[in-house]
């Protein structure tokens, strides 16, 4: 799996993306009479996901058609070229027309992402069809985005048996070393010595010690800090999850996987920024020393937190990391986490909800997301709900009762630790529940490409 474009060769076959209503005109004006008969005799109608190899005079493939649907059908999905690529023959193809110029980059990205295979535990048949980078597309940029997505997917897809805090640290170290970044890791009891009490409390019951991973890269430019939730498995702690809710908890480190993918993209692109990546890596396990419902923890910034549900642990580990991030007053702090089921109820698995008080940043992100085929949706830091996270016995409640506005109250909780600077929080799902074009069932990156497009404007790069 290379996630790269094919070299342009003389034998690359022309590939035409055809809208359904344009099929007749294409057949009449572009194809030979024999090829026209071939197409008309087939079931190809230009629908999204359809593909047809068309022979030349000698019977060998001469070109290929893929369906591009209609504007209405395209609005109901994304990566439309990718929907048809798996049905093409094992050939090299060159796009010959049919895809609007402003859609070329994302359609090419989808074609590359279609080649992704998670084959760590089982051999997966490679995709035979390959695409030449079209003229006008920055091939290196698209390949970087594909590799960053693949990194995120691989990390999420790997089960906790092979992706605990130790292995997540190893992945972060490999990434840092690949780009000449500095990495520092605080492990186990040292978390208490360095004042990360909530990270320690959440992870202390697990066999693999909790840790805070701290990556720094770049010495000039604005300061950008990415904070990713690294709960490598979440049993729920003493508020134990039912089995059905525990089945996907290997993906509870999806926030850390996503910020590592975004960091890979930023570093590989050579941005003039001072990048910092903070990952509290823990397993929320059950043992005699598990933190308990009713406990009151004191966070790094001195705020006390009443524990009303040990299954609301992600915001606890993020709180210490955000407090650390805020101490440097960076130009932008972004947290990403598979944080609440409430977010999934609100917007489903395909949208990445985000929170920010910065109207300019929100506008830049909302504008960039469709261009990057990476949908996001702004949610409110609704101040009247602040009282819901204030239990009275402590400054904050980690799990307000009542069940209302769960994603919003979690975001408000995190904002208490992020300081007064520019802060945005993403409550992602990190999982594709069923196969979609360019996205197999499994781990998926959300929000990273939209951020990659929006951050240069936000940071003044």
From TrEMBL:
GO terms for molecular function: manganese ion binding; metalloaminopeptidase activity. Keywords: Aminopeptidase, Hydrolase, Manganese, Protease. One of its GO terms (cellular component) is cytoplasm. GO terms for biological process: proteolysis. Residues 309-316 form the Cytosol aminopeptidase domain. InterPro entries: Leucine_aapep/pepB, Macro_dom-like, Peptidase_M17_C, Peptidase_M17_N_1. It comes from the Bacteria. Belongs to the peptidase M17 family. This is Leucyl aminopeptidase. It comes from Donghicola tyrosinivorans.
């Amino acid at each position: 799996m290379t996630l790269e474009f094919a070299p342009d060769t003389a034998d690359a076959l022309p590939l035409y993306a055809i809208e359904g209503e344009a099929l007749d005109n294409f057949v009449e004006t572009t194809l030979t009479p024999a090829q026209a008969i071939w197409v008309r005799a087939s079931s190809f109608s230009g629908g999204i996901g359809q593909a047809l190899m068309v022979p030349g005079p000698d019977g060998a493939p001469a070109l290929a058609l893929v369906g591009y649907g209609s504007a209405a059908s395209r609005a109901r999905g994304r990566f439309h070229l990718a929907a048809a690529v798996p049905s093409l023959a094992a050939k090299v193809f060159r796009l010959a027309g049919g895809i609007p110029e402003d859609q070329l980059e994302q359609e090419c990205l989808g074609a590359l992402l279609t080649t992704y295979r998670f084959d760590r535990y089982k051999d997966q048949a490679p995709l035979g069809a390959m695409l030449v980078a079209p003229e006008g597309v920055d091939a290196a940029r698209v390949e970087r985005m594909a590799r960053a997505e693949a990194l995120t997917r691989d990390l999420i897809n790997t089960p906790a048996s092979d992706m605990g805090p130790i292995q997540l640290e190893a992945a972060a170290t490999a990434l840092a070393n690949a780009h000449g970044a500095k990495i520092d890791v605080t492990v186990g009891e040292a978390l208490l010595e360095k004042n990360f009490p909530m990270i320690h409390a959440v992870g202390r019951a697990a066999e693999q010690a909790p840790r805070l991973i701290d990556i720094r890269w770049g010495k000039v430019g604005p300061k950008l800090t990415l904070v990713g939730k690294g709960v490598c498995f979440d049993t729920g702690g003493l508020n134990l999850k039912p089995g059905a809710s525990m089945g996907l908890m290997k993906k509870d480190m999806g926030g850390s996987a996503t910020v590592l993918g975004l960091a890979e993209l930023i570093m590989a692109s050579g941005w003039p920024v001072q990048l910092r990546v903070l990952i509290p890596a823990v397993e929320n396990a059950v043992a005699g020393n598990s933190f308990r419902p009713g406990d009151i923890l004191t966070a790094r910034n001195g705020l006390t937190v009443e524990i009303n549900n040990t299954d609301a642990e992600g915001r606890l580990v993020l709180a210490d990391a955000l407090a650390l991030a805020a101490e440097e007053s960076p130009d932008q702090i972004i947290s990403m986490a598979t944080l609440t089921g409430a977010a999934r109820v609100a917007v489903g698995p395909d949208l990445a909800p985000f929170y920010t008080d910065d109207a300019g940043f929100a506008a830049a992100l909302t504008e960039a997301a469709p261009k990057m085929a990476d949908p996001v949706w702004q949610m409110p830091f609704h101040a009247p709900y602040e009282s819901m996270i204030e239990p009275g016995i402590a400054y904050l409640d980690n799990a307000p009762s009542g069940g209302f506005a769960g994603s919003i109250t979690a975001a408000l909780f995190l904002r208490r630790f992020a300081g007064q600077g520019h802060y945005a929080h993403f409550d992602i799902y990190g999982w594709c529940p069923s196969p979609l074009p360019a996205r197999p069932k499994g781990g998926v990156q959300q929000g990273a490409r939209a951020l990659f497009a929006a951050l240069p404007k936000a940071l003044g790069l």
